[in-house]
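Per reviewer request, we include the raw input and output of the structure prediction for the construct analysed in the revised manuscript.
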Amino acid sequence: MNKILLSVVLCLACILAMSAATATLSAGVTTTEICWDDTEQGSFNLINGNTTTTATINGIWAAVPSSVLDELNITINTGTPFTIGANNSSIVNFTVDVNTVYAETYSVTIYVSHNYGGNDTNYTFTQPIRVRRCFCEGNADEMSTFTIKEPDSGDDFYLGDTIDVEIKVEADDDLDATVEIELYDIDENEVVKDISEDISLEEDEDETFTFSLKIPYDADPDNRFVVNAKAYDEDDEDDCLEDSVDIELKQKSHHIIFDRITLSEEEVRCGSFTDLTVRLGNAGKRDEDVELTFFSNELGIDLSEEDEVQEGEEETFFFNFDIPEDIEEGTYSLKLTAYFNYDDDDDEYRDSATQYEDIEIKGGCVVLTESLSLSAERMGSAFAGESMSFDVKVKNTGTATIEDYQVCVSDSQSWNEQAEECYIDHDLGAGETAIETMYFSIREDISGTVSFTLTLTYNGQTIEEEVTFSVSKETPSASGSDQFWFEFKHNIGWVILIIVLIVVIIVLAIFLGRKPKKIERPLQRKRK
């Protein structure tokens, strides 16, 4: 019995001893980033997870992928052997040299030969090495963050698509910076598309900016591509912040894109003859028969052209058109539609792409303005208890035809027995005048000054005109004698003057009409 117990104890001891010597080495790794044609320092952390036994590290070496064996080199910067105590760790430094221009994340295999309690074993893990194209020699002091939020690494796009590149920028100080973004073909080692825009931020401000980067129709979808971005203060382009993401390009079977639209002049004049040039690119996998239509209802344009566009090639379409002389100055939209993927069986195009282009028309045009005037003229006298009328005049004082307008009467019910009314008219040309007669019925008890309001509405505009006039009370006709005494009382001065003149005339007539008396003397007797 004692022998059996002793054997069990010995077995357990052996098991514990073997367990203590079992390898529990692990590694903590982070991605090491390195610029093209550069040298960078990196590190990983070796962790001895055994709680009782020291690990002896006999050797560490790296195996890079065979595809970049000549371009990527890693040197482990530590002497061996060295030990890592139980339940402890040790930082291992390495140096990366890159003489390639490929932007990619490589998985480098790290081999660690080590010994636990006299037992030799190997531990293997992978160390990510991200090689990217670098722009900046130093950091921009005004910025703390410059990060591409969209697209994500590995996102898919089709040839001819537009990538919305979202970049978050945080400013430590007032910032006036330039952002440069490029689409880089890794396999061809060339920039296939780039853009540049200026941004501004205030101190401690952060903002996400969106930039549009169009993928060329002739890019090779079999190649590898990366979106690179950097931002730098205007004083020094090398002191900047940068970021990049890898993307995948795909190709549709049928895909026609608008590559460039050009007007012969940025601003065209009314009545002029203008050229429009449109370049279409074939981003699809097949040659395409294309019909391009050019339309503008406002300018009276309805044109079309047909041509073939080869795969991966471009074709230019030309349109000549007249600008109307009587068009209004301003900005007009031109609609361009490319029809492609022609089906012989159905005799129709299955796909289309549409693009709009603005054209600025100035100089010598008829400037159309909308303006109406409103007035009212009373027709005849206004007496209480009678009807009267006004001629309402609407004149087009602008240069544009007014299609619809309305005139209404209001504020007349205190003296007007007739219902208030409105009238609607149409198509009043420039310089024309329309007259509408509006009738009123005056109450019998009204006299003195009264008013009403005319309201003219057209195309969202309103004109109001208050009209004021006097109302009289008409009296009945008087008899002959009453009329005489009325006139006598109201003209007494003239009557007295006339009576005086009549008396004077009578007196004079009497005086002048009397004959002088003959004087008789007594007869004298003759003396005898």
